[in-house]
Amino acid sequence: MHVSLTDRFCARAKAGQEQTDYFDEQVTGLTLRVAKSGRKTWTLHFTSPRDGKRARLSLGTYPATSLAAARSRALEAKGEIEAGSDPRNSKPGAMTVAEMIENYLANYARPNLRSAKSLELRINKNILPILGAMKLSELHRRDMNRIIDPIISRGSSTQAAHVFKDLYAMTRWAVARGDLDHNPFEGMVRPSLGKPRERTLTVGEIRTLWDALSLAFPEQYQHIIKLCLITAQRVGEVAGMRRSELDLQRRIWLLPGDRTKNSYPHSVPLSDLALEIIQAGSGDDLLFGPLLRPDIIAHRIEHALKRIGIPHWTAHDLRRTALTRMAELGVAPIVLGHVANHRTTTKAGMTLSVYVHHAYEKEKREALELWADRLRGIVAGGAEVVAIGGKRHG
């Protein structure tokens, strides 16, 4: 599609059924590619003076690389083409961090890593806005601290460690390719992962939270928070629930691999309590209306803490609470692993990964329905539920 690109258009551009290319009418060959995920990349289509074949040159990602910057890089590359040089062979010092990242994602991460989706999310949030426009040759050790310090300041030590590893791996890859002369981050120490959170809500806190949701959150947030607790799924997965993922006749939620953290499809049996929340959803395709990112939900929870009246909690604590309470009800660890879609639990070792193909659908349903009954009792004020093995929980 040929368009007279503007900053306003680039900011609002979306993909159709598949990825969509928008060709700039001002600079011939310059293209804004919008993936189904929403990621936007700049490329220049040209005929290589080296072999006469059609080729593409990555110019960075939007918005880290602005429209003006993309046009400038495209014109510079076209000048090299007119002079008989292939711009893909330009000296390493001309490459930006954004271009190095795009090369890494396109040539290594996406074809080889199941975690590529999570990697891109971390890069887009933490690295590109700060370093994207910088020349790769100008990277310095202090730039790692510019990335990591703000993450640690907001209390995300685990993410800081992951982002450090991401940036280090990309620059090491760039050195191996010859795009960078040396890795400026060599010898730096990765941040500590910190102590993992262990917070679970008590029975009294669950009841208090459930009763206070309508006072502290809009309806959209209420539905999402309740379903996190009912289904033990991740907040991003719940917030992005689509009607097309729901098989209400079979009472099951079918999450595609491109919506899960580990990129594996996942099925979640739906209890009566879960179905009550789902049926209250009023969105068209997205069940709960415009998509809320996990960081937006976390921010809203932070602001509502005082109104809720229980110690600090997060959406992920609700998932941990549900899984912990199911364990207390006698649900086996292997079943909990399948409920949580934890591949390290369900596919640990050669025996499980190769020989065990049982999906535990029946056991998952029993576990989630048992927990839903227990949760109803908690919210109502303490009804008994008989756990697996006969032990009663009041």
Structure description:
- The protein is an alpha+beta fold and 394 residues long.
- The protein has three domains: 1-90, 2-Layer Sandwich (Double Stranded RNA Binding Domain), CATH 3.30.160; 92-194, Tyrosine recombinase, N-terminal domain (DNA polymerase, domain 1), CATH 1.10.150; 203-393, hpI Integrase, Chain A, CATH 1.10.443.10.
- It is 50% helix and 11% strand.
- The chain contains 16 helices and ten strands.
- The protein has helices at residues 7-12, 67-82, 97-112, 116-131, 141-153, 157-177, 203-216, 219-231, 235-239, 272-279, 294-308, 315-328, 333-340, 343-346, 349-355, 361-380, and strands spanning 2-3, 20-24, 30-34, 40-47, 54-62, 246-247, 252-255, 266-269, 385-386, 392-393.
- It has a five-stranded mixed beta sheet with strand order 1-2-3-4-5.
- Strand 2 and strand 3 (30-34) form a beta hairpin.
- Helix 4 (116-131) crosses helix 5 (141-153), helix 7 (203-216) crosses helix 16 and helix 12 (315-328) packs antiparallel against helix 13.
- The longest helix is centred in the middle third of the chain and has 21 residues, at 157-177.
- The protein is elongated.
- The model is unreliable at 348-357 (pLDDT under 50).
